């Protein structure tokens, strides 16, 4: 299971244009290119999305939106709303790239442990393992999807509704997304998505 697939290459510009800083001026330079042109026909960023044929509701953490171009029934990319061209958004939110993938969970099939997940994905030995409810968050290292992002990143594995959810949070090297703040970003997304899914 992986949270990075060939379907997400359309969103590669988000990775390559992430700033080396979390608080930046987005009006000039490369970051200005993240916002679509005024006359763009691109889909607007989403604040939530139905996945797995409506059986899972994905809700981003505070300040994040879903990249509509990346969205499928089982995969989504999220980033700070202002980086995706939204008119409003929390510019103080952690600058990072959050991916989520969903799959059907077999009956009585246990979730993989962080160690099993890392081994299967060719990732480094997990550290900073945080267990909470039906999800586990941990830090690991592996090939980053862009040279601008650190190989160190946060992962989560667990269950939302009747489905397995895995997520990855990447961030610029040495910045907030890959610090302990990253745990809260993943946990908030998991909590919001679980609550909305259970309520539907």
Write out key terms for the chains shown.
single chain; 200 residues; Protein Transport Mog1p, Chain A; two-stranded antiparallel ribbon; Dihydroxy-acid dehydratase
Report on the architecture of this protein.
The protein is globular, with a radius of gyration of 16 Å. The strands form two sheets. It has a seven-stranded antiparallel β-sheet, with helices on both faces. A two-stranded antiparallel sheet has the order 1-2. Mean pLDDT is 81; it is low at 1-35. The protein starts with 11 loop residues before the first helix and ends with a helix. The chain has a single domain (6-24, 44-199), classed as Protein Transport Mog1p, Chain A. The protein has three helices and nine strands, in the order αβββββαββββα. It is α+β, with helices and mostly antiparallel strands and 200 residues long. It comes from Sulfitobacter donghicola DSW-25 = KCTC 12864 = JCM 14565. Residues 1-20 form the signal peptide. Keywords: Signal. This is Dihydroxy-acid dehydratase.
Please give a quick description of this structure.
The protein is built from three helices and nine strands; from the N terminus they run H-E-E-E-E-E-H-E-E-E-E-H. The strands form two sheets. A seven-stranded antiparallel β-sheet has the order 3-4-5-9-8-7-6, with helices on both faces. A two-stranded antiparallel ribbon has the order 1-2. The chain has helices at 12-16, 114-121, 181-199, and strands at 49-51, 56-58, 64-66, 75-80, 97-104, 127-132, 135-141, 152-160, 163-170.
